[in-house]
Write a structure and sequence with these properties.
It is built from 15 helices and twelve strands. It is of the alpha+beta class. The strands form two sheets. Strands 1, 2, 3, 4, 5, 6, 7, 8, 9 and 10 form a ten-stranded mixed β-sheet that branches. The protein has a two-stranded antiparallel ribbon with strand order 11-12. Helix 12 packs antiparallel against helix 14. The radius of gyration is 31 Å and the shape is elongated.
Length: 404
Amino acid sequence: MTSKIAWRNILRNKRRSLILIISIMIGVIAMILTDAFSVGMMQQMLTNQIGADAGYIQIHKSGYQANPSLKNSIADAGLIRAVLAKEQSSCNVSERLRTLGLVSSASNSAGVAIVGIIPGEEKKVTTIHKYIVKGNYLSENTDEILLSTATAEKLRVELGDKVVIMASRLDGSVGSEACRVAGIFETYDSGFDQTHVYIPLRTAQQMLGVPDRISEFVINPYDTKQTDLIALRLASALPHDDEVLTYKHMLPVLVMQIQVYDETIYIFYAIIAFALLFGIINTMLMAVMERTHEFGVDMAIGMSNKRIFTMILTEAIYLGIIGTAVGIAVSCAIFIPLSHSGWNLATFSESLNSLGIGTTIYPILTASSLINTVLIIPISATIGAMYPALRAMKLQPVEAIRTV
């Protein structure tokens, strides 16, 4: 009976009820879409970094992460290859040789990180081949090089032009190679583009005079959820001279940002709930004041204070549930097309690229976002209705009946 009366009270003043429902709906949409775009932005930053270079797992010689020099490269990779061969059914593997050096053209020069890769294997662990905007990806030819758009512009070179790369060898001498620009790439991270060039692994080893050395192995599990498990398995199978790192160790700042966001999003939820709280208090208080005479009659014929309190709370819960349901439906209607097409923010491309995000943001709707919304809004509506309900309970029947 109380729920039926509460529902009729909501329908009695449709305009006021509709205004409150729209307010709740807007709050729900703000919560869900803000969270979805923030999560999408964070995940894109992480995914782009993993895809462009880091991979999910890397194996180095112990100490290489702290001091990535040629001296700390792996001299004998036979044992590591044997261990990784046992994991070939669960992951892709690529080998690299890294060093800092100089790339020069007839017009200019630039300091870069020179990355020697096995083109076919690298395709399986990173996405650098997908960022080629001119020319082609590296082939097995040892005289080819991949430059970024920013580096090519700085050096004033085009496809097919020759550049010279130079780097220090282990013995202190300078090794150099002349390479032809086979392709030009452009990733979502302008900082990364300005500092990386790619050459075949054999070219890098020949230039540096280290035919057998490897800086790192990059491993991408077929099932990325198994990353920690595979890393633990590799670490237990390899000697202590080698270190196995996941992307959480290689990209600690990004991982920390995601963790901080997961903790601070509740502050945003609290702000939305707090704003809705005042709207609900105001609306329900007006409803109570308008129905003072009615409450007085109800009390006079025997309706208990507890029942009046319950009735007002039920009205608020109904409004909160309806507003939340409509808000979730509208949010999903907005989210679904944007999750496929993304939100193009090309106007802010320079800033977004400097963060490694990209100009198009794809929102990600998480189950926790929906659960938090479903819980927070109706609870806020219930809390907001408590003060008006308490006011109604304190009414004196005789004085309330006299109120016009």
